[in-house]
């Protein structure tokens, strides 16, 4: 009798938790997505097409994708290097390095943008030094790329470090004793064991880069057609009371987010199936 009561209570609790979870997802995810799509089409399909094919939208999209691609490439290289160093070698300051990797998670993006201005802005040592070589970081594409790099560089490293720790060093040491080169060991032994974690980290880095607003907003200067990414372009359209156009441009980010979500689920499925 007592077991039956416990089973009934567990079933009620399970149903209540599932219901709350569904309601939360509907209110926080599904409803906003519906509002964005309906808002984008509120003035007709013609207005929607005009908004997403506008010259400023195209330039914002180009800048966003450029910053994303560069960030992915550099963060992937950095993530692999730092993960290799932390898991395959022993050295002083290893814990400090691990703490520094997590630093972007702790610092608000707006503060990151402010720090970049204080480091590379006019009147600073580095800023003036770079200007002597005709290189400007703040209010340029370079600053946007630097900001996105700062806020996204932990993602790849933090995904593959646990995998490389689990992998250990036995296989690499055995291959090295047999005369294999470092690059061969990485390509044939290390990379196959971390490839799904690496891909997952790249996907997270992509999503974070495309949606970055705070740090980019501070260092961009909001120069139309030059330093506005898609999130910044949405803000400008919305502040100008061009609501349909703002929702239309937002839909580009929504569609991209859905694609990234699908890719993430595929990677998770592949990774689980390999275990």
Automatic annotation (TrEMBL):
Superkingdom of the organism of origin: Bacteria
Limits of the ABC transmembrane type-1 domain: 61-264
Keywords per UniProt: Membrane, Sulfate transport, Transmembrane, Transmembrane helix, Transport
Source organism: Clostridium beijerinckii (Clostridium MP)
Protein name in UniProt: Sulfate transport system permease protein
Pfam short name (any one): BPD_transp_1
Subunit structure: The complex is composed of two ATP-binding proteins (CysA), two transmembrane proteins (CysT and CysW) and a solute-binding protein (CysP).
CDD domains: TM_PBP2 (cd06261)
A GO cellular component entry from the record: plasma membrane
Membrane-spanning intervals of the chain: 12-41, 61-84, 96-118, 138-157, 197-223, 243-267
Protein role: Part of the ABC transporter complex CysAWTP (TC 3.A.1.6.1) involved in sulfate/thiosulfate import. Probably responsible for the translocation of the substrate across the membrane.
Signal sequence range: none
Database matches in PROSITE patterns: ABC_TM1
Topology relative to the membrane: Multi-pass membrane protein
GO molecular function list: ABC-type sulfate transporter activity
Location(s), subcellular: Membrane
């Amino acid at each position: 009798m007592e077991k039956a009561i416990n089973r009934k209570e567990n079933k009620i609790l399970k149903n209540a938790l599932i219901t709350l979870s569904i309601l939360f997802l509907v209110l926080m995810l599904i409803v906003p997505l519906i509002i964005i799509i309906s808002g984008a089409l509120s003035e007709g399909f013609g207005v929607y097409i005009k908004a997403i094919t506008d010259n400023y939208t195209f330039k914002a999209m180009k800048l966003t994708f450029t910053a994303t691609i560069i960030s992915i490439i550099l963060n992937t290289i950095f993530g692999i290097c730092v993960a290799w160093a932390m898991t395959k070698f022993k050295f002083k300051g290893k814990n400090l390095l691990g703490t520094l990797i997590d630093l972007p998670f702790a610092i608000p993006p707006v503060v990151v943008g402010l720090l970049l201005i204080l480091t590379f802005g006019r009147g600073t040592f580095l800023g003036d030094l770079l200007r002597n070589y005709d290189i400007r970081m703040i209010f340029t594409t370079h600053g946007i790329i630097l900001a996105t790099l700062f806020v996204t560089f932990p993602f790849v490293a933090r995904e593959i470090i646990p995998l490389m720790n689990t992998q250990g060093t036995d296989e690499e040491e055995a291959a090295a004793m047999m005369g294999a080169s470092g690059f061969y060991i990485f390509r044939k032994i290390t990379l196959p064991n971390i490839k799904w974690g690496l891909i997952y980290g790249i996907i997270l880095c992509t999503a974070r880069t495309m949606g970055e607003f705070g740090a980019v907003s501070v260092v961009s200067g909001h120069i139309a057609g030059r330093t506005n990414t898609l999130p910044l372009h949405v803000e400008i359209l919305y502040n100008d009371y061009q609501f349909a156009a703002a929702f239309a441009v937002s839909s580009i980010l929504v569609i991209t987010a859905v694609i990234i979500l699908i890719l993430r689920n595929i990677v998770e499925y592949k990774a689980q199936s390999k275990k």
